[in-house]
């Protein structure tokens, strides 16, 4: 395995561009943000220090070989992200010993370039994340949090899988639309409730308002309203050339059981696919009953459609946290 550390988003994208397009679904946690940072850099904005990308190549002396995985260490408007790790090759084709050896080398490389306090968690496909977390703990002494922060399945919806229905007729007083500035307080409240359900990544009211205003400004959050009350939000905040990432779906408890989330998710999927996106992707927590909702909309590999066999781009993902670190947010 040959490793390359890229200190700027432009350097990372230039070294990997012709290899990333076919893997936009897997790379939704990494690629859209790298592109956003590269655009900001070209516009003359300075980037926060300490951000980097590591690529692993299976042959040759770097970018003339086969790209195996990408790891990112980045941050955004609400703070630092987890370190995201994405393997591009189907994991069942990689021998366990090879994967373990790669993650041991990656852990040693990381220990030389990032302080352990920055690595509050690793997130990626389950097998490499378990191996990387084990070796990171051994190399640095960082102790993993006993219970993973997040256990999820990746999934996607396309024009072919989207469940087609007749033109949706909403009840009187119900509306689905992009959020507007006047929705900020209501959306902030739902963002805070969503974060309260996702410890340790909770939000203060001020930071929840910051997130709401950011999403509204970027036209990345849609709402379902009943008699003018915002009941449900669906956010799409990670977008690359042909893949849109649905990053937040939440209905406030008093309005659950009315189909608001299912209708809004389907509406947002139809809008994204009609705009030219080839796929809408998301992560579904293993314990969430919402998997059935996504299945009914047309997402692959979740709910009753989840298969025990390997399905490309519908894999088990895992976030493992560490004690004694500076917590970020995502």
From TrEMBL:
InterPro entries: Acyl_CoA_acyltransferase, GNAT_dom. Signal peptide: none annotated. GO terms for molecular function: acyltransferase activity, transferring groups other than amino-acyl groups. It holds the Pfam family Acetyltransf_7. Residues 176-323 form the N-acetyltransferase domain. PROSITE patterns: GNAT (PS51186). This is N-acetyltransferase domain-containing protein. It comes from Serendipita vermifera MAFF 305830.
């Amino acid at each position: 395995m040959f490793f390359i550390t890229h200190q700027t988003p432009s350097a990372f994208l230039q070294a990997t561009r012709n290899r990333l397009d076919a893997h936009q679904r897997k790379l939704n946690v990494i690629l859209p943000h790298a592109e956003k940072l590269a655009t900001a850099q070209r516009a003359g904005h300075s980037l926060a220090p300490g951000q980097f990308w590591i690529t692993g190549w299976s042959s040759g002396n770097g970018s003339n070989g086969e790209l195996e995985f990408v790891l990112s260490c980045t941050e955004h408007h609400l703070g630092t992200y987890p370190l995201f790790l994405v393997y591009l090759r189907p994991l069942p084709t990689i021998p366990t010993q090879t994967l373990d050896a790669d993650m041991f080398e990656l852990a040693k490389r990381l220990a030389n370039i990032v302080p352990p306090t920055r690595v509050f968690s690793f997130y990626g496909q389950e097998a490499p994340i378990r191996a990387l977390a084990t070796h990171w703990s051994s190399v640095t002494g960082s102790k993993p949090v006993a219970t993973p922060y997040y256990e999820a399945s990746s999934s996607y919806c396309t024009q072919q899988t989207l469940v087609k229905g007749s033109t949706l007729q909403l009840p009187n007083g119900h509306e689905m639309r992009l959020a507007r500035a006047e929705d900020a307080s209501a959306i902030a409240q739902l963002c805070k409730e969503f974060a309260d359900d996702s410890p340790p990544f909770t939000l203060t009211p001020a930071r929840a308002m910051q997130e709401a205003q950011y999403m509204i400004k970027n036209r990345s959050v849609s709402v379902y309203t009943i008699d003018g009350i915002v009941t449900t939000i669906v956010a799409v905040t990670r977008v690359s050339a042909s893949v849109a990432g649905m990053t937040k779906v939440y209905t406030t408890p008093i309005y659950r059981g009315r189909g608001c989330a299912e209708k809004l998710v389907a509406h947002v999927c139809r809008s994204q696919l009609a705009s030219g996106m080839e796929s809408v992707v998301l992560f579904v927590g293993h314990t969430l009953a919402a998997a059935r909702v996504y299945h009914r909309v047309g997402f692959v590999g979740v709910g009753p459609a989840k298969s025990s066999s390997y399905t490309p781009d519908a894999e088990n993902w895992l976030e493992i946290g560490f004690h004694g670190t500076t917590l970020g947010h995502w």
